[in-house]
Amino acid sequence: MAKDFSLMEDSNRSLNPSIHEVSDPARRIFVRGTLASAAASLLGGGLLAGCASTGPSPAATLGRTIGFASVPMRNVDEVIVPPGYTARVLNRWGDPVGIAGRMPAFKADASNTAAEQEAQAGMHHDGLAYYPLDGSRRGLLAINHEYTDDGLLHPDGMKTWSADKVRKAQAAHGVSIIEVEATPQGWRQVLPSKYARRITAYTPMHISGPAAGHPLMRTAADPQGTRVLGTLNNCAHGHTPWGTYLTCEENFIGYFHGPDQPDAHGKRWGLKKGGAGYRWHEFDERFDATKHPNEPNRFGWVVEIDPMDPTMTPIKRTALGRAVHEGATVALTDDGRVVVYMGEDARFEYIYKFVSRDRVKPGGFAANRDLLDHGTLYVAKFNADGSGEWLPLVYGQGPLTAANGFADQGEVLIKARQASDALGATKMDRPEWTAVDPISKEVYCTLTNNSNRGRDGHPGVDAANPRANNTMGHIIRWKESGDLDARRFTWNHFVLAGDPSLARADAKGNVRGDIFGSPDGLWIDPRGVLWIQTDVSTSTLGKGDYANLTNNQMLACDPTKGDIRRFLVGPRGCEVTGVVLTPDLRTMFVNIQHPGETPSERSDPDAPTKISSWPDRGRPRSATIVITKDDGGVIGL
Question: What count of other Cβ atoms lies within 10 Å of the Cβ of residue 132?
Answer without folding.
Answer: 13
